[in-house]
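Please predict the structure of the following assembly.
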Amino acid sequence: MTQPVLQVSNVSKAYRQYSSELARVLNWFGLSTKPATETWVLQNVSFEIAAGEAVGIVGQNGAGKSTLLKLITGTQRPTEGTIAVNGRIAAILELGMGFNPEFTGRQNVYHSAGLMGFSKSEIDSVVAEVEDFAEIGDYFDQPVCTYSSGMQMRVAFSVVTAFRPEILIVDEALSVGDAYFQHKSFSKIREFQEKGTTLLIVSHDRGAIQGLCDRAILLNHGTVIRDADPESVIDYYNALIAEKENSKTETRKLESGKIQTISGSGEARVIDTALLNANKEVVEFINVGEIVTLSIKVKAEKYLPKLALGYMIKDHLGQTMYGTNTWHTQQVMHDVECDSIIIYNIKFLANLGPGTYSVSTALVSSDTHLVDNYEWRDLACVFSVTNVDKIHFSGSSWLQPNIEIETHLQTV
Amino acid sequence: MQSLVLSTWRYRYFILSSIKVEFRGRFIRSRLGGLWIVIHPLVQAAIFALILGQLLSGRLPDMADNRLAYPIYLLAGTLGWSLFSEIISRCLTVFIDNANLLKKLVFPRTCLPLIVSGSALVNNTLLFAAIVLIFLLLGFVPGVHLVWIPVLTLINLGLSLGLGLILGTLNVFMRDIGQVVPIVLQLGFWFTPIVYSPNILPEQIARLLQLNPMYWIIQGYQNAILYNQPPSWTALGVISAIAIVLLVLSLVIFRRANSEIVDVL
């Protein structure tokens, strides 16, 4: 059993306000003065992270994500509980902190790496690497005030990742910079992960969490309410943000061991979901590129002024392969009577790669499940795709190729 | 305590580089660069020499016939006071000025006062060099007791750092302190014999002024530079003790406040 690199035990954080600042000062010297107000932003948060794990932290604004990160990095102290860190932490949320615009990129690299606690000789040994990674050419020796914000970001990212930390905290800030550098920085992060760096990723982006993490922690009102695989945590999180008055969130364990989340007001319900082949037979296994029909049976439990059905096909990692809804296809139903049954037959070519896929459904009144969420149902139906008659290929989509090869003899 | 020293030692490169950065920063886009560090106090001393010279130059003890005595007296006092006031005013806002760094990055907080002290010492050394240069140009050669200046600088540094850090920590929570201290410093300048000699004061008031630790420190500077005498060691011993108590107290207060400083910044 490897020792955890990060151990958060029963951590709580309160921001205290005193009736006067004098009372606060007296409090430091043990003269007990009660704070006038205490705002608890984190309560009894506990988790352990092992080396090399990649953990996503999700939660709504104000759930306590930033505070938790500040406590982990150590800029703030927990009011109660302890945080044990085994190794160095670097955070990509403080990019460009401490850059002096009057100095050159190179001088700033020395200065900020010094701020991270490295010595001159240690910095000397990586400065060429930083320069290469940033790829900003001659600008590296120009004052930072002449940089574009993207260039500044490049240098900042390169410094933070110049030394491999034991724990790397990645914030949404990573989405800055151009596509090329984003890819480059993501592969750097993955490279660190392979070498054993633990990742802590904060994002609202489902793709980033599911693509990078093997575990996710959901924070809500300062407490951990879910700590499990990213797919089920994010499903639960989506349900949570859709949760409104009169709506409830229910999870249940399916026979496959997966956790299904159903949420919404229940004014309309999906009562059956099935995948049919060309002969209208219910199937679980289909061929790559086969014509199939997704048949979804919906029952209105109440009179509904508007009803739209959305669906998403997701792979085993929870990444969306395809999703749309009848609002986008301009097939919103109006004035749906109570107790009416509606059957949606969605015919499509299953141009998917081999693997297992799941279908999520959403019954809503417009294009998003955030207003009038009648029902959101994950894992409404599961099916597998196998490659029966196509050429061998990898990946999650079937893009039928037609490869032409030309050969020429080079004449010198 | 030991870990505090160790972690600060690990950041020695950052501390030195910050002092360098601050110093180099003055030369960017400014032709005279570092000269401004010494021009300000020198001009101030020159103004006092011009305005009060006639009035006070004859009043310095045993120096009635020395035309240069008053300017030298002024420069000696300015050297000591500028270090004291620079460190106090920088420490006062050191946490507020670096709020962004403190909120986002983890590094030993002790680095900040060390950077302030280091950079103030560099400035003070430059001023000292400029003053000695002026003396030589005027044809005044300081005596051997000039060697006490580093000792006086150290005591001065300890006193101002201790006081400055206590005020700086409290200033994070009570911003009024940041407004009051510059006024008190201004008063302090006049309640310390820098532009005048204490022997022109009525005895009672002179005795009252002796309660001001800066009275003794500045007198030490004046003795070492102008009168070529050693400082009064009994008074300086007491002041060193006060400085140590203040430094320890500032550390204690800072440690208690540390966890809350970032919360309110």
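The longest strand of chain A covers residues 4-17. The interface with chain B takes residues 15-16, 21-22, 24-25, 28-29, 70, 73-77, 89, 93-94, 97-98, 100, 102-103, 107, 110-111, 114-120, 123 of chain A (CB under 8 Å).
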